[in-house]
Amino acid sequence: MELTGTHTLSQPPEIVWAGLFDATMLAESIPGCEDLDQTSDTTFAATVKLKIGPVSAKFKGDVELSDIVEPQSCLLSGKGSGGMAGFAKGSARVELRAENGGTILTYTADAALGGKLASLGSRLIQSTANKLANEFFTNFGEVLSRRTFSNKSRQE
Amino acid sequence: MGPGRVVNIPLELRVNGDDVAEFVEPRTSLADFLRDKLQLTGTHLGCEMGVCGACLVLLDGKPVHGCLVLAVQAAGSEVQTIEGLSESGLVADLQSAFHERNALQCGYCTPGMMMTAHRLLETDPDPDRATIRRALSGNYCRCTGYEAIVDAIATTAARRRTEAAQ
Amino acid sequence: MTDRAGHIGTPHLREGALRHLAGRGDFVSDQQLPRMVHAAFLRSPMAHGTIVSLDLDEARASAGVVAVFTAADLNPRCADWTSQLDHFVGMTSAPQNMLAAEEVLWVGHPIVMVVARTRAEAEDACDKIFVDFEELETVAGIDVALNADTPPAASGVDSNLCYKNELKTAGVDDAFANAALIVEGNFAFGRHTAVTLEPRAIIADHDPATGQLTVRHGTQTPFQFQDVYARHFGVPDHKVRVIAPDVGGSFGMKLHVYNEEMATVAAALILNRPVKFLADRLESFVTDIHAREHRIHARMAFDADGTMLAMDVDDVAPIGAFSAYPRTSVVEGNQAYRLMGAPYKMKEYRGQLTVLFQNKVQTSQYRAVGHPIACQVTEALLDRAAAELGIDPWELRARNVVPDDAYPAESATGYRFEKLSHEASLQKLRSLMDYDGLRAEQTALREKGIYRGIGLATFVEITNPGVAFYGVGGARISAQDGAVVRLTPGGEVHCAISVTEQGQGTETIIAQIVADQLGVAPSQVKVTTGDTDATPSGGAAWACRGAGIGGETALRAGRKLAERITDIAAALLQADPANLKLRDGAVVDRGTGEVRLTLAEIGRIATYRPDTLPGGVDHSLSVAQHFAPSGYPFGFTNGVQAAWIEVDTETGLVTLLKHWVVEDCGRIINPLLVDEQIRGGVVQGLGAALFEECLYDEMGQLLNGSLADYLVPMAGEMPDIVISHIETPTEDTILGAKGVGEAGTAAAGAAVLNAVNDALHPLGTRLTQTPMTPARILAALGIGQA
């Protein structure tokens, strides 16, 4: 199941790029994220609480950034076990392009569900994944703005 | 609240004409409460999501899916299960018609069918076959193929109309 | 053959139905026992993988948890089970045990069993278990399974081939070479499942003081499970009691060994208290046996005047990661490719069967095993030939069925038929449905752009199976049944018999048959079934054997008791037993009908005053009798079905306007019960033809595990079904009855498939895949994608 999207962010690609590798930023952006620890330069361990259709689950999993071409593109992949609920995995190819001082961020993502989530929620995966992806990038943009603004304020 | 602490809250309601006072977990469904706590096992579970109709009970006179109502939502209400409905005698003619027509086989869907049939004939004393089939479309049966059930309900409706006319 | 007596053939009502109408059914899912605990399972979310680590500490500490079991705890208590039938030469399957130890083989494969005070608490604990997996290559889909490079779905086998076989008559190649017309088709039949309204339920209890294992099991076949539990858990079988009370639907699904039920027994043996497992609806979709997935390429050869000469069938039947136990997953395909063309005079046949493993849940026998597939392929190709040859479909069938006076006969695949009535059935159907009238109506409506179709399907049905089914293959599945019939001290009758009741009316027909032998009313005969402690051992319910085999058992036992009673009466009256008979609850003079002694008197004397009987008279009022079918290996029945439907070419929706069945099941014991069995069976067949399919993705994930997404037939979509009968009794038994339980399902799908294609014929398109969903119908019409 594939989905694509485009977001416009007011910060330049370098700032956006740095945000993608920042554990605190990711923790605040990932919907339902309860915990996020950086386990290496490019990997994180996360605990995320999600509801997909009628199934609520706490996912324990890993997020990894790979195929890194700074500051243009990378591959974000995540895989989480939801215990009794099943598992969810997905990856998103993220591309950044400078425009008018800001960044156009495009992503192409795919997601797969397994176990109970697939049996009960497969009809909803497209819409849920869309919603979650949107939430992630919207959150990401907001946190980025807040940070940049507060940095700026401190600078002034 | 720490892990492993079960919270029970008091629940009072009337079931089949009797006052009931019990403690339940908030998450307990009305169907589970009736079956497990009160041993009224005539109400059956088939899907736990309101599709199959096996768990239909009357809540303040209206059929509801016991699996979709929390027990605590029925506080202060009147619940009638198949056991109570049967004892009331209100469905005696439906029961006879089902029996005569062999409109049940394993019997698992039958209490739900009784609930739906009872409600249908209360609101529509002269339903045609298509109307009966539509009314039954929330009650899953795997054994009978439905036709005998439709026949039994149609027969009961006709008998009631005859009696009313006399 | 005996003369027709009072109760056989009459529509007696089922006494056993009354309690269900009052909500007083006694299903295992309803039962509560003292100190009972509940099981839930943590299951594999992936179709194929290895378990790397399990974190159980939080689960063990969870509220209400009594025990947490892994494979290491449970599996050593149970001997592995391996699916095998010797007559499927070369079949292979990996040994199985209760919980996955290292390798998970399908989504839903149980890994951890949690036992807790309540089911909710058991599930709460399961929520706290995390398993680390390493994914292995998933085998999902026929082409993947056929590919020799694909690794095996299970590490215990070498490849994804479970079984392969070819049947071939000597002249089949010549028949095709010289045929005037060959029609062919590629068919796909969707995997579907039983969806019994009561899911699987079991309560196992063990008393360490006596070593007694008592299992309350919602199953059709308590004796098979008595044997399975005894042998696999090492308990002598006289210490294993299996009770099958009310069962909320079975249809073959509840015949098979499942991991969860075995684990529940193991848990009871460890915990020494009642342990209950009740599958919820999701678990049912994910772990009940699935059935009937086939991909078939078939050809049919005709000569110029429409005589069917031969069929050539290539049947690929994908199953699960292992074959089911103890009845195998091969029987479905075996019956499908052997039943092709069975009603017809066709002499030549080639059939190839390939059974493949996949990382999906196991498949096995489900109502009408293989029959719907054989019928759909045969009947669809016949209709295609009829169109090509310009012969009316009814006419083509009438020309090609085995004539009613041509028996005994044998099919090209080796099935032997005692005596069937295809011609008479076709004639009866034609007038019953007003075939000519419907054709005229169809033509008139087509002018107005309304597309209605008529579909016919001739079928045979396997009933009354002998040992050829399982016994000769080495499986401990009984083909015989036994009954103990006794006269009570009060002069009533009790019959304990090994056939079982799931609502089809077995107990009622047994009462009718015994009542007939003893000259009493059926209400005076109490029938006990479904308890291995209370009845003799026997085959119970499967493959439509209750009436034909169970009935014959009851008849012979009843006659034996009648003889005994007559002998006792003769001794007491100093009369000749030949001058006495039983009638209306008494022993009467055969000539005058004068009452000589009531049964109540005989009961009283034999029970309380045997001293008053002349010496040497056997005063036992209990007799036992077993019966196993001999003669024909199967008691075939036959019939023909027709469907009248309308296709909405804008939405793809099919309206089922009406359905007809003409059925010959031999001597009918209770027409009321028989007709409702047929109706229920038809609707199950209609479900598979139009709605039901278990959908998987390429990773082996089941995508529609709820009643919202897996569509079952509901009342609003089903037609009225008109039924008529022909009775050709079997000479193999005194009773002459054959079975009928699966007949409806055998041909309903074929009738509808043909009807839809008949409706779409003017539009130049056809379907060869079921279920015929609106999307598939529209795709065939060139609209949208399937």
Structure summary, number of beta strands of chain A: 7
Order of SSEs of chain A, N→C? Answer: EHHEEEEEEHH
Mass-distribution shape of chain A? globular
Instruction: Determine the mean pLDDT of chain A.
Output: 87
Distance N to C terminus of chain A: 47 Å
Please state the structural category of chain A: alpha+beta
Q: Uncertain runs of chain B with pLDDT below 50, 5 residues or more?
A: none
How is the largest sheet of chain A built, in terms of strand order?
1-7-6-5-4-3-2
Mean pLDDT of chain B: 96
Number of helices of chain A: 4
Name of the level-1 CATH class of chain A? Alpha Beta
Radius of gyration of chain B: 17 Å
Task: Provide the CATH superfamily of the largest domain in chain B.
Answer: Beta-grasp domain
Binned strand content of chain A: over 45%
Q: What CATH architecture of the largest domain in chain B do you see? A: Roll
Could you tell me the CATH topology label of the largest domain in chain B: Ubiquitin-like (UB roll)
Order of helices and strands of chain B: EEHEEEHHHHH
Strand arrangement, largest sheet of chain B? 2-1-5-3-4
Outline of this structure?
The complex is a heterotrimer of chains A (156), B (166) and C (786). Chain B is of the alpha+beta class.
Structure description:
The complex is a heterotrimer of chains A (156), B (166) and C (786). Chain A is an alpha+beta fold and 156 residues long. In chain A, 33% of the residues lie in helices and 47% in strands. Chain A has a single domain (2-155), classed as START domain (Alpha-D-Glucose-1,6-Bisphosphate, Chain A, domain 4, 2-Layer Sandwich). A 7-stranded antiparallel β-sheet of chain A has the order 1-7-6-5-4-3-2. In chain A, β4 and β5 (73-81) form a beta hairpin. The N and C termini of chain A lie far apart (47 Å). The model of chain A has no long low-confidence stretch (mean pLDDT 87). Chain B is of the alpha+beta class and 166 residues long. Chain B has 2 domains: 9-85, Roll (Ubiquitin-like (UB roll)), CATH 3.10.20; 89-165, DNA polymerase, domain 1 (Orthogonal Bundle). Chain B is 39% helix and 15% strand. Chain B has a 5-stranded mixed β-sheet, sandwiched between helices. Chain C has 786 residues and is of the alpha+beta class. Chain C has 3 domains: 31-136 and 197-250 and 253-287, Aldehyde oxidase/xanthine dehydrogenase, a/b hammerhead (Aldehyde Oxidoreductase, domain 3, Alpha-Beta Complex); 290-467 and 631-780, Aldehyde Oxidoreductase, domain 4; 480-627, 2-Layer Sandwich (Aldehyde Oxidoreductase, domain 4), CATH 3.30.365.10. The longest helix of chain C is centred in the C-terminal third of the chain and has 28 residues, at 546-573. A 7-stranded mixed β-sheet of chain C has the order 3-5-1-13-10-11-12, sandwiched between helices. Chain C has a 6-stranded mixed β-sheet with strand order 7-17-16-15-8-31. Classes of the chains: A alpha+beta (156), B alpha+beta (166), C alpha+beta (786). Chains in contact: A-C, B-C. Chain A binds chain C through residues 60, 81-87, 112-120, 122-123, and chain C through 42-46, 107-108, 123, 126-133, 282, 285-286, 697, 699, 701-706, 709.
